[in-house]
Amino acid sequence: MTFFSKLGENIILPQDVLIQSKETAGVSGAINATIGIATKNKKALFLPSIDKVIKEINNSEYLPYSPTPGLPEMRNLWKEKIISDNPKINKEHLSLPMVTTGITQGIDIVANLFSSEGDALLLPSLFWQNYAQIYSIKLGNKVYTYNQFNENNTYYLENFKEVLYSIKESKISLILNFPNNPTGYTPSTEELDELTIIIDRFAKENPEKQVIIICDDAYFGLFFEENHKTPSLSSIYKLETNSNCLIVKLDGITKEYYGWGLRIGFITYYTGNDNLREHLLEKTQGYLRSTTSSPCNLSQQIAIRLLKDKDTYIEKKENDKIIHERYIILKKSLDDYKLSDSVTVLPFNSGYFFTIKMPSKINAHDFRLKFLHDYKYGVYSMDNEHIRIAFSCLDKELIPDLVKNFKLCLNEF
């Protein structure tokens, strides 16, 4: 006898980064480079303005319920930000963002509104595992993956196209997550344009298929190389001219404003069809009403003040500069210690992470445990082959030692 529904039977608590991070915390003196957060001296890297604005908020402002789609001022401020970040788009085609409890809820809402059993999800071969939990286990989508990088370690657009055209299902959700978790890769402007062309041709050649293009912009703004800074929406917005394409942008305060625990995310639609845009907002609001009912008022009050405070932008740039500096030191350390002679360091140029593909003779999980217990560094083994390291968690003076010790640990295998 079981009390569980079919979904209850199938749902799992993945033995993923949260479990491995907890394991790292249990090792005395270990440095934690597992989880998607930015730290300094082992504490969250924060915006000082958050402390200031919290003191300004009156309980009469934050105790009442928020409207289901979020506070109007919050939604308007975020829309202005998206337009500023993507000057090429037609601002009239952009919906008002709707507030979610983090980007994860946004993904879940989009999945449930537009996908069901018998539909398809297209992802790169290395992806955030919660996508599969939501689309495959909860909704019964078939997951297709393309190789993110080819044998020359460059972005594999040809394989993306090959897999896209191989999909037989009539509805396809396609997640573009740049900067990517776990690889830390953002396509060049030319690569992103070519990706858009491939999707556009596919949509035109297959008018009977529906394509939902989802931009998961969780790490938006942390772009470190000059030709790899084009926002996804600034390229794929062109696809809305296809009646069988729907564009959705998911983003949030979480990483962009160093406010992980505020749990403020957004769903925004881009379409030139006014009736469709209103219908999308209505349906999304209906789904929100049936789940969280309304987002956290206090977090929104904090976020509103942050977005309106000029000091916030100065502080944010300072924090972004810290992450960028770590990236530069990491790149130099990888060269200095010639880590690529022993493993495959996958291309990275943005975000929080980089990913290493281990040699076939070394199991990534075994390596992680040895690296943790013998060298006191916690890293995330995603599968038997790949290890993800969050350099966002590493103070700059720790980075060369991590790379050096990683190579020493490799030699022991």
Automatic annotation (TrEMBL):
This protein's record includes keyword Transferase: yes
Q: Which cofactor does it need?
A: pyridoxal 5'-phosphate
InterPro entries per the record?
Aminotransferase_I/II_large, AspAT/PAT-like, PyrdxlP-dep_Trfase, PyrdxlP-dep_Trfase_major, PyrdxlP-dep_Trfase_small
Does the keyword Transferase belong to this entry?
Answer: yes
Single GO MF annotation: transaminase activity
CDD domains xref list: AAT_like (cd00609)
Q: Which Gene3D superfamilies match?
A: Aspartate Aminotransferase, domain 1, Type I PLP-dependent aspartate aminotransferase-like (Major domain)
Q: Which family does it belong to?
A: Belongs to the class-I pyridoxal-phosphate-dependent aminotransferase family.
This one is known as Aminotransferase class I/II-fold pyridoxal phosphate-dependent enzyme
The scientific name of the source species is: Gemella sanguinis
